[in-house]
Prior knowledge:
By secondary structure, the protein is an alpha+beta fold. 44% of the residues lie in helices and 15% in strands.
Amino acid sequence: MSQTNWPSEPLLQQPAFKVAGSNPGSRENALALANHAYIRAESIWKSWGLTVEDVMTLSDKFWKMHMDPIAWHDGCSITVMTIHLNLAIGTIGTYAKDRPDLQKLCQDMIEAKAFGQFCLTEAGHGLDAYNLETTATLQDDGSFVLNSPNRGASKYMPPTVPVLGKPCYAIIWSRVIVKGADWGVRPMLVQLNDGTHMCKGITSKLIPTRHGATPVNHAITHFTNVKLAHGALLGGLGEKPASHEDFLVAIWRISVGTLALAALAIPALQISSYIAYKYSARRLVGAPNPVPILSFRTQQIPIFTAVAQTYVMTAFQKYVVKHFTDPASPHQVRHAFSCIFKAVVMEHSQTSHFALSERLGAQGLFDYNQIVTQF
């Protein structure tokens, strides 16, 4: 029988099979969970007393917040928090010195009166984001018209759907067109929605939730003839087109996020090693005189190795942050530090998480034991 003609194929049209492997209420559940994630995110940064100045200066408080174990109570909340604080406020604040309107917006965002997003990648452009196709065309009156010229140019992943009835503003990285000429990729500040409805000319389509992780309300965002005031262009037009180097400097907060989010692997590994240790200490085997499985070297080595790694990673994080925040360091060096830190920490942490999960036997596969939900 040909494998292209399975007798079971018609079953896929039956209701019982249409929901297999997915949540039939995934959209509603994802939106509800996203609302809770924003509430949790706000609670976390406010518990730290974070200010706009902390975000802009990359204070010790900013970095310590990204080592807080509470982040692993809900990975979605830390995702939206980092986008909101680091990418949105961090980027807008860079251009706010002589812009009272931007200063007020940053303050509204830190107070959670409004939410921020950062829309760089597109459906057709991920790692090659510099080749993005979204356009912001300069008009004769100084305004701009924002467009996604095709479906591949739609912004991909940023969670732009309305939440909690609060307005959302985003930095839309766009190719600025001046009299038909390409003036490079620039940041445009755009209000996406009012917290309930999308703004005119902007659509946001929720994409399917990712399994194995707390869902973020990721979306595909499309722009059709969206009219923007001249001030929407952050940093001004300048006298010449923006170069690739200008683009890399402008998106430097991505490197901040790379370092900050990678640091979350440290509390994750601390939590996992603690869980594995407690389980191994109380799990008894053997008869008639049972002993804890922690007495076996096969349990001790992965657990104690993970604990040792957390101490080394913590010291490494402090070293990298010191050099990353050095004003004398060029952005290429900062980027290198963040990438190296992420590569090293994620490799060791992920490997240790798998080893620790295996030490818990069947119980290591369940969400409530947390380890498998972190990586």
